[in-house]
Design a protein that fits this description.
The complex is a heterodimer of chains A (420) and B (157). About 3% of the residues of chain A have low confidence. In chain A, helix 3 packs parallel to helix 13 and helix 7 packs antiparallel against helix 9. In chain A, 76% of the residues lie in helices and 0% in strands. Chain A has 420 residues and is mainly α. In chain B, strand 4, helix 5 and strand 5 form a beta-alpha-beta unit. Helices cover 36% and strands 20% of the residues of chain B. Chain B has five helices and five strands. Chain B has a single domain, classed as Rossmann fold.
C-alpha cells in the first residue's frame, strides 16, 4: 500500500511539472506530496529530515549558481558572446557553427546547461538570423551541446551537482575524470552535426561581406566590437579556480559559488526582489519536494527495482549498461527525477558508476525533443493541432548522436578511471 | 506568368540574379521568404525542456519579432537586387508547406539548390527536395554559385 502511495505521489509531481499549470504549480504539488507522505507515515519524519539535510548543500549550491548565471546575463556577457560569434564567423556559416560550439561549450561547462538553453540559444538564433544565415544548424548545435557539454564539471548540470555529493569525488577529480568523455562527446557532436547540416554550412562567405560587416544587404549594420564584461569574466574565472582548489583549501564548493554570486551582485546591484527571483525559489522547493518523494518511493521498492537493473562493479560492460539504463530513464521521465531515482544504486557501485550514470542522464535527453517522453506525450495531447515543431528532425539527429556519444564517452570514462 | 521566387538566407543572391536573367519581362514576380517556426520554437522554448524551471523571459524583442524583422530586411534587399517590379511575401511556418501553399496559384516556382555543391540528389536540402517533389507547378532550379562540372557527380568539389 505504502509503495503504491509513494509511486502515485511521484507520478503527481512529474505530471504537475510536465503540465505547468497555474492552478497546481509543480513546486506546490511536490511540497504537498512530500508533506502528505510524511503525514501518512509512508516516510518517517527522520528519513524526510535526512533527505532534506542531504539535499540542502546541493540546493544551496544550485541557488548560488542560478544567481551567478543571472549576474552574468545582467553584466551583458551573453550579448557580448553574440557579438563575438558574429565577428568571428566573418560571414561563413561553418565558422559561425564553430563559434557557436565554443560559446555553447564554455557556457554549459561553466554556467550550466540551463544558461545555454535559456540565455545563450536565443542569442544564437538572433545572431544567425542577422548574419543572415540559416539558423537551423546553430540552434540545433546549441540545443544538443547544452546536454552533451554538461558532462565536464559538477556545476555544469543539476544532475552532476546531485551526484557530486554522493560520488565522494573532489571537484578537481570529477573534472579530470570527465574531461576525456566530455571531449569525445563534443568531437562526436561536431562530426555528426557538421555532416548532417553540410548543405546549410558549405556556402562560402559572400564576396561583399568583409570582416566587420554583417551580410551584404545592410552595409550600415556593422558588427560592434563586443564590450567585454571584464569584471564578470574575472569573477567567473576566480570562482572556477576556487572550485578547482576547493578540496586543497578545505572550503566546500558551495561557499565559493556563494562568494562568486555575491561578488557579481555587489557590482550589478540588482534589487533584492530581482535577486530572490534569480535564485528561482519555486524551483528550489520543487527539487526539495521531488527529492523527498523519490526517497519515499526508493524506501518502498523503487531502489531495489533499480538495483536489480544496474550491474555492479566498474568494468566496461557494467559502465555501458549503467549509461544505457540512465539514458532510457532520462528519456522516459526527464533527467532530474531519473538522477534522483538511479543515483543511490549507482553510488553503491562506486564513483565510476556514478559518472557513467551522468553520461546517460546528461547526453541521453538529446533523443527526445523536450527532454522526456512524458513531456512529449503531454504536449502532443494538449497541442494536437500545433504542427509547427518538427519533432522528426530533432529525433533523427538525436538517434544519430546519442548512441555514439553514450558509447564513446563511456569508453573514454572507463579509460580515464583506469589511467588517472 | 505568375512566378514565385523562393528567397532563403544562404542562396538568395544567386537565386535573384538568375531569376532576373532567365524570367521574361512580363512575368509577374513575387519574392517569397519563409521563416522556419520550428527552429524559432526550439530556440525560444528552451525553458519548457527544463523540468520545474520557470525563468522570466529574457529582455529584448521576442525571437519571433527578430525573425520577422530579418525576413523583411532580406526581402527588401532581394527586391533591390532584382531591380525589376516584384511583390514580396513573408510567411512563417513549416518551410516546405508554406512554399507549396504559395505555389498553389503560381505558374512557375524559382528555387535554388540549397544542398551540397555537387551533382546528384544531395544538391537539394530536405525542404527543397520536398518542395520539388510536391510542387503543383513547373519548378526552375538554379545553382547557388558556379555549378559543379559534369565529372563531379557524387564527389565533393
Amino acid at each position: 500500500m505504502a509503495e503504491a502511495v509513494a509511486l502515485v505521489a511521484l507520478a503527481a509531481c512529474l505530471a504537475a511539472a510536465v503540465q505547468r499549470s497555474r492552478r497546481a504549480p509543480d513546486w506546490a504539488v511536490a511540497a504537498g506530496a512530500a508533506l502528505a507522505l510524511v503525514a501518512l507515515g509512508v516516510l518517517s519524519a527522520g528519513s524526510a529530515r535526512a533527505a532534506v539535510s542531504e539535499l540542502a548543500p546541493t540546493v544551496g549550491f544550485l541557488a548560488a549558481l542560478l544567481v551567478l548565471a543571472d549576474g552574468c546575463r545582467r553584466a551583458g556577457m551573453f550579448d557580448a558572446l553574440g557579438q563575438a560569434m558574429a565577428l568571428g564567423a566573418r560571414g561563413a556559416p561553418r565558422r559561425l557553427l564553430a563559434m557557436v560550439f565554443l560559446a555553447a561549450i564554455a557556457t554549459t561547462a561553466v554556467l550550466s546547461l540551463d544558461a545555454t538553453i535559456i540565455l545563450l540559444t536565443p542569442i544564437v538564433f538572433a545572431t544567425a538570423a542577422r548574419l543572415p544565415s540559416n539558423p537551423r544548424p546553430h540552434v540545433y548545435a546549441c540545443s544538443h551541446l547544452a546536454n552533451t557539454a554538461s558532462l565536464l564539471l559538477p556545476i555544469s548540470n543539476l544532475t552532476n551537482l546531485l551526484a557530486f555529493h554522493s560520488s565522494g569525488l573532489s571537484f578537481a577529480r570529477f573534472g579530470a575524470l570527465m574531461a576525456l568523455p566530455w571531449l569525445v562527446a563534443l568531437a562526436l557532436e561536431w562530426l555528426v552535426l557538421s555532416r548532417t547540416f553540410a548543405g546549410e554550412l558549405r556556402r562560402p562567405a559572400r564576396a561583399a561581406a568583409s570582416a566587420g560587416e554583417i551580410g551584404t544587404y545592410q552595409g550600415t549594420r556593422a558588427v560592434r566590437r563586443p564590450r567585454l564584461p571584464v569584471y564578470a569574466l574575472i569573477v567567473v574565472a576566480l570562482t572556477l579556480a576556487g572550485f578547482a582548489f576547493s578540496s586543497l583549501i578545505g572550503v566546500a564548493p558551495v561557499w565559493i559559488a556563494a562568494a562568486g554570486a555575491l561578488a557579481l551582485s555587489l557590482r550589478e546591484r540588482p534589487r533584492a526582489r530581482e535577486l530572490a527571483l534569480a535564485a528561482e525559489p519555486t524551483f528550489l522547493v520543487f527539487v526539495f519536494g521531488l527529492g523527498i518523494v523519490v526517497r519515499a518511493a526508493g524506501e518502498h521498492g523503487l531502489s531495489s527495482a533499480v538495483d536489480a537493473l544496474l550491474p555492479g562493479g566498474s568494468a566496461l560492460p557494467a559502465l555501458l549498461a549503467t549509461a544505457a539504463v540512465s539514458a532510457v530513464g532520462a528519456n522516459l521521465l526527464n533527467n532530474l527525477p531519473a538522477t534522483l531515482i538511479i543515483l543511490p544504486a549507482a553510488a553503491a557501485n562506486g564513483p565510476a558508476a556514478v559518472l557513467a550514470m551522468l553520461i546517460g542522464v546528461n547526453a541521453g535527453p538529446n533523443l527526445t525533443y523536450v527532454g522526456s517522453l512524458a513531456t512529449l506525450l503531454w504536449r502532443r495531447i494538449v497541442h494536437a493541432h500545433e504542427h509547427d515543431t518538427d519533432i522528426g528532425e530533432f529525433t533523427r539527429l538525436g538517434a544519430l548522436t546519442v548512441p555514439l556519444v553514450l558509447l564513446g564517452a563511456t569508453i573514454a570514462l572507463w579509460l580515464s578511471v583506469r589511467v588517472l | 506568368m505568375r512566378t514565385i521566387v523562393w528567397i532563403a538566407e544562404d542562396t538568395w543572391e544567386a537565386c535573384v540574379d538568375q531569376a532576373r536573367s532567365l524570367l521574361p519581362d512580363e512575368a509577374e514576380v513575387t519574392l517569397l521568404h519563409v521563416a522556419p517556426s520550428d527552429v524559432e520554437q526550439l530556440a525560444a522554448g528552451g525553458a519548457g525542456r527544463l523540468l520545474g524551471r520557470r525563468p522570466p523571459p529574457p529582455p529584448g524583442p521576442p525571437l519571433r519579432a527578430i525573425a520577422a524583422e530579418e525576413a523583411r530586411a532580406l526581402l527588401e534587399a532581394a527586391r533591390t537586387r532584382f531591380a525589376r517590379r516584384a511583390g514580396v511575401r513573408s510567411a512563417r511556418g513549416r518551410i516546405e508547406r508554406e512554399v507549396l501553399e504559395a505555389c498553389a496559384f503560381a505558374d512557375l516556382l524559382v528555387a535554388a539548390r540549397d544542398g551540397e555543391l555537387r551533382l546528384g540528389p544531395k544538391s537539394l536540402g530536405p525542404h527543397t527536395r520536398f518542395v520539388v517533389d510536391h510542387a503543383p507547378c513547373p519548378v526552375l532550379l538554379v545553382w547557388a554559385g558556379e555549378p559543379p562540372r559534369r565529372g563531379a557527380a557524387g564527389r565533393r568539389v
